[in-house]
Amino acid sequence: MDFETSVFDKEYISLAGTREGIVRGGRHLFGRLPQAFAGIGRIGVIGWGPQASAQAPNLRDSLSGTDIEVVVGLREGSASREAARAAGFREEEGTLGEMFEVIGSSDLVLLLISDAAQAALYEEIFAALRPGTTLGLSHGFLLGHLDQMGSTFPEGIDVVAVCPKGMGASVRALYLQGAETNGAGINASFAVHQDATGRATERALGWSVGLGAPFTFQTTLRSEYLSDLTGERSILLGGVHGIVESLYRRFRDQGLSETDAYRHSVDSVTGPISRTVSKDGLIGLYRRLDDPQKEVFAQAYAAAYPVGLELTHEIYDEVASGNEIRSVILAGQRLSRFPMGRIDQADMWRAGEVARQDRDQENLPLDAFTAGTFCGVMMGQVDTFIEKGHPYSEIANESVIEATDSLNPYMHARGVAFMVDNCSTTARLGSRKWAPRFDYLLTQTAYATVDHRPAALDTTLVKAFEEHPIHEVLRICAEMRPSVSIFVQ
Predict the structure, then answer these.
(1) Residues belonging to the active site
(2) pLDDT digit of tens for each residue in the chain (489 aa)?
(3) In sequence order, what are the residues at sequence separation of 6 or more whose Cβ sits closer than 8 angstroms to the Cβ of residue 90?
(4) What CATH class has 10-214?
(5) Of residues 272, 302, 312, the one with CA closest to residue 288
(6) Where are the domains of the chain?
(7) How far apart are alpha carbons 181 and 183 in whole angstroms?
(8) 276-280, long-range: CB within 8 Å, 24+ apart, which pairs?
(9) Do the Cβ atoms of 191 and 218 come closer than 8 Å?
(10) Could you give the C-alpha distances from 380 to 225, 259, 265, 310, in angstroms and in order?
(11) Around 70, how many Cα atoms within 13 Å sit in the side-chain half-sphere?
(12) Which CATH superfamily is domain 229-478 in?
């Protein structure tokens, strides 16, 4: 897998013995965007969800002073119309319009509506695209759905993806910080699935640079959706949701108060554990522990890793087979009758609201058992993706960096329950489906083994962890992180 670009400067990095091409971004490259977008006069951003509401203003600002206009397309009667107007997109100026009219009049169409809406409307969307158009996605869900339907993207158009490795709020906030600090932004992956114009790669890279991505990595659309859907059901959301609920109950059973149990489970993961991994990597977290703490970490890791490996393999198989995508579509059809309930009124999450009010950030516990459990599940996902042949940059981003640099800091500020209750429908469904599986297997098998059959733990797993190639990969990737910290609103 490789790519060629005559507009941007490609570099190579070596990750665990493999070579990957990357493009380094920065505001000094915005002057190259008209060349990257040659033949494009209008970019239509369809939708106003978390990604669209960040990407549309980023691209508009990056292309200011050029002849390329950025237009937002919304469905008639969309509740987001006023929010788009407040962000500076207006009908009277021709920068806000009806969804299908914008699709039909745009040369680059960034389809950023929900997965359910893409699945329901793709035939109408494809019919509205003009030949020679570039269709852009920030998630590969639609490819998986087309596979299930026995359908394909239309011939005669480009199909590309640019997938920021963070939430929409971070994509916009770090872009704005980049006005003061060149290089601030959210890294992204890009993919060229179909190249009808011969310009697909340049347009995808221009899109990524225009969003403010400090570094852009290559992947494929299929690899992206397999790792993305699996990751959000495993360590990025569903897994961490199940981990902290199981740990909270464990600590309560051991006699800790509600606040202390929350501190040692949720706050420990989203605070000091994630901050340490973000700065020093997984191995840096382990080395920070003293010898007695390392023994506790090792027990928890040896018990949790098999759970992470087993469940991530199962999730991956469900995504790859199409079962997970079908379940999301079917659940979406039931939501009008059976809407998703909120989890934030459970005792644990109510205790979290209290705990966050007087939190001493500098003295939160880095609990060794919690760290071993979290890292064990995370490494189960890492090894699953390695076995499935994903590029190391994608493995590092989808398994570690996005968790510790973007999602966990957000959950530290607002709560895991807030994320589970307010993220995309696809992610919310996935967390509700898979978090109980992580919770159950950790409680019923991993912790039970630690407590009652510690001799049955495979101690070689910790040695394998210490020698794992992911540590060098994370060290290299850490050099390419944004130049300022992720902004949490």
Answers:
(1) 139
(2) 789 999 999 999 999 999 999 999 999 999 999 999 999 999 999 999 999 999 999 999 999 999 999 999 999 999 999 999 999 999 999 999 999 999 999 999 999 999 989 999 999 999 999 999 999 999 999 999 999 999 999 999 999 999 998 888 889 988 998 888 766 688 999 999 999 999 999 999 999 999 999 999 999 999 999 999 999 999 999 999 999 999 999 999 999 999 999 999 999 999 999 999 999 999 999 999 999 999 999 999 999 999 999 999 999 999 999 999 999 999 988 999 999 999 999 999 999 999 998 899 889 999 999 999 999 999 999 999 999 999 999 999 999 999 998 899 989 988 999 999 988 899 999 999 999 999 999 999 999 999 999 999 998 999 999 999 999 999 999 888 776 666 454
(3) 96
(4) alpha beta
(5) 272
(6) 10-214, 229-478
(7) 6
(8) 276/366, 277/400, 277/404, 278/401, 278/404, 278/405, 278/481, 279/478
(9) yes
(10) 18, 29, 19, 8
(11) 27
(12) N-(1-d-carboxylethyl)-l-norvaline Dehydrogenase; domain 2 (1.10.1040.10)
Q: How far is CA 197 from CA 106, 118, 140, in A?
A: 15, 24, 21
What are the percentages of helix, strand and coil residues in the chain, rounded to 5? 60, 10, 30
User: What letter represents residue 240's amino acid?
Assistant: V
